[in-house]
């Protein structure tokens, strides 16, 4: 267990989630019904990525109107993004990678934060700045479970949320790894279902996934 209080908080949030859907919201009007559909299916911890013009407003709407959701901000690339996430009232932040400047800003911030890493050198830099809970990204493309196991050798106390190439087909395999707290992915809310407003379908998919993965 990490001794850093912020890292302990994000470790607990991620561990309780099992699966964190990575949400790229194109239309603001989709934000609240999407979040409600996910929560209804048992998926409460959400990563709203800062990849679209409406992302910040979408996160703000979900935080205000879906109190059951635990909203984090993803695709944090710099200190400005980090400050936006904190101002929105996000519960945590996640980045796909990390620069020294971002790690320093995150260390000084009150927001629980998991930097993205793909290599041993990147992980060493994250650890040097106090981060032992990280996002392994892009997980499959960066070597998959073999790479994760290799990193676990010299870094046995690091806890990971793999994202990138994680799917319904392999999520349980990733979750079986002892250093994995949860997995991230977008398969629970396909873009086609969001565009079609297929909220019932998303809820059903989430309920099935949570039942299967928690029992596994």
UniProtKB/TrEMBL annotation:
PROSITE patterns attached to this UniProt entry: ALDOLASE_KDPG_KHG_1, ALDOLASE_KDPG_KHG_2
**What are the record keywords, sorted?**
Carbohydrate metabolism, Lyase, Schiff base
- Pfam families reported for this sequence: Aldolase
Name the CDD domains for this protein.
KDPG_aldolase
Q: Which InterPro entries match?
A: Aldlse_KDPG_KHG, Aldolase_TIM, KDPG/KHG_AS_1, KDPG/KHG_AS_2
EC number(s) on file? 4.1.2.14
Tell me what reaction this enzyme catalyses. Answer: 2-dehydro-3-deoxy-6-phospho-D-gluconate = D-glyceraldehyde 3-phosphate + pyruvate
Q: Gene3D superfamilies, per this entry?
A: Aldolase class I
Source organism's superkingdom? Bacteria
The reply to whether Lyase figures as a keyword in the UniProt entry is yes
A GO term for molecular function: 2-dehydro-3-deoxy-phosphogluconate aldolase activity
> According to its UniProt record, in which pathway does this protein act?
Carbohydrate acid metabolism; 2-dehydro-3-deoxy-D-gluconate degradation; D-glyceraldehyde 3-phosphate and pyruvate from 2-dehydro-3-deoxy-D-gluconate: step 2/2
* NCBIfam families, alphabetized: eda, PRK05718.1
Similarity annotation: Belongs to the KHG/KDPG aldolase family.
Per UniProt, subunit arrangement is:
Homotrimer.
| Protein name, UniProt field | 2-dehydro-3-deoxy-phosphogluconate aldolase
**Annotated source species:** Bradyrhizobium ivorense
- Lineage, top ranks: Bacteria, Pseudomonadati, Pseudomonadota, Alphaproteobacteria, Hyphomicrobiales
Give the gene name. eda
């Amino acid at each position: 267990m990490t001794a850093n209080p912020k890292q302990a908080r994000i470790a607990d949030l991620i561990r309780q989630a099992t699966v964190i859907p990575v949400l790229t919201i194109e239309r603001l009007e989709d934000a609240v019904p999407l979040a409600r559909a996910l929560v209804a299916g048992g998926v409460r911890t959400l990563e709203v990525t800062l990849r679209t013009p409406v992302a910040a407003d979408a996160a703000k709407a979900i935080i205000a109107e879906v109190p059951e959701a635990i909203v984090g901000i993803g695709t944090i690339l710099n200190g400005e993004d980090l400050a936006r996430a904190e101002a929105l009232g996000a519960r945590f932040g996640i980045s796909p990678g990390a620069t020294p400047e971002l790690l320093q800003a995150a260390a000084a911030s009150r927001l629980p934060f998991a930097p993205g890493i793909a290599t041993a050198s990147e992980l060493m830099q994250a650890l040097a700045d106090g981060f032992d809970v990280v996002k392994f990204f892009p997980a499959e493309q960066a070597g998959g479970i073999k790479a994760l196991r290799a990193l676990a050798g010299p870094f046995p106390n690091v806890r990971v949320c793999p994202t990138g190439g994680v799917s319904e087909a392999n999520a349980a395999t990733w979750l079986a790894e002892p250093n994995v707290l949860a997995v991230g992915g977008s398969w629970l809310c396909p873009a086609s279902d969001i565009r079609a407003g297929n909220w019932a379908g998303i809820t059903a998919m989430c309920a099935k996934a949570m039942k299967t993965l928690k029992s596994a």
